[in-house]
Amino acid sequence: MKDGALPTAEILQREYLDGAGPGVKIFTPMRIINAQRLARAVAAQPDTYRYAIRECLPQLPALRNDLRAIYLAYAGLLPERPLPAIEIVFGALNSGGTASADAQVIGLEVTCPRGTTPEQFRTTMRGFFAHETVHTWQDDETPQALADPLLSQSLREGVADYLTKLVTGAVPNLDRDGWARQRESWLWQEFQRDRLAMLADRDSLRNPIASPRFKRWFANCGSAPEGWPCEAGYWIGMRIAEAYVAHAPDQRAAIRTLLELRDPAAILKASGYAM
Fold first, then answer.
1. Helix pair angle (233-247, 264-271), 10° resolution
2. Roughly what angle, to the nearest 10 degrees, separates helices 174-181 and 184-199?
3. Rounded alpha-carbon distances, angstroms, from residue 20 to 16, 87, 91, 120, 128
4. SS3 sequence, 116-162?
5. Residues 150, 217: contact at Cβ < 8 Å?
6. Backbone dihedral angles phi then psi of residue 86, each to the nearest 5 degrees
7. Could you tell me the pLDDT band of residue 275, with boundaries at 50, 70 and 90?
8. 2 falls in which pLDDT band (50, 70, 90)?
């Protein structure tokens, strides 16, 4: 993006995707997709990319102490779990982060929108460091988890938010938390209604991401129900995880059970969470 010029798909392919490091390779299949899509994203919001390059990219070295503190906390909590590598990339404006089994990848153009202050950027990145680390530890979905997709997804994301809160001391997404706590009982009833409807619908079980009921709770930033924050399902899962650990006689063992997530319905029952 030198001299204000926008990179073409050919340039992005040759100079970015062809020589991709592990982070870009992880980000490409479901997010970047290809050079053409990336070029369209850059052309649509060039100032977003310029801002992230100019303002936030130089701040990354200063975040090493935050990352070290988070990783030390995780090492004390779960010493048997390997800590992942960190990859910072530029994606196609559609994902702040994802994880593989041994790396977490953060999309800088999403975590650093225009106008982000250094303190806001630090808070956001601390949350991503902690949240995406948990995803590198979570096992593949079991048959029980696949059979209960809304609850399973809620726990996958909610457990990551619960552990993020534990190691950072900060509540993930304060605006969502404040909104949800004011209407927790009603929100749980809505979640249960959608969950049970999906359990009774073969199409929803076969392809949950396509279900309108699933999209009320996940993958809906920019399209959440009117008046809702995006991805309220994270919050429900976090609350179930908190209740599960609080009721467990061995809290470290409970956290390991949450990471394994072999039977979401059993976890929900044992948590005692029912508003």
1. 60
2. 90
3. 6, 11, 12, 29, 22
4. CCHHHHHHHHHHHHHHHHHHHHCCCCCHHHHCCHHHHHHHHHHHHHH
5. yes
6. -115, 130
7. low
8. low
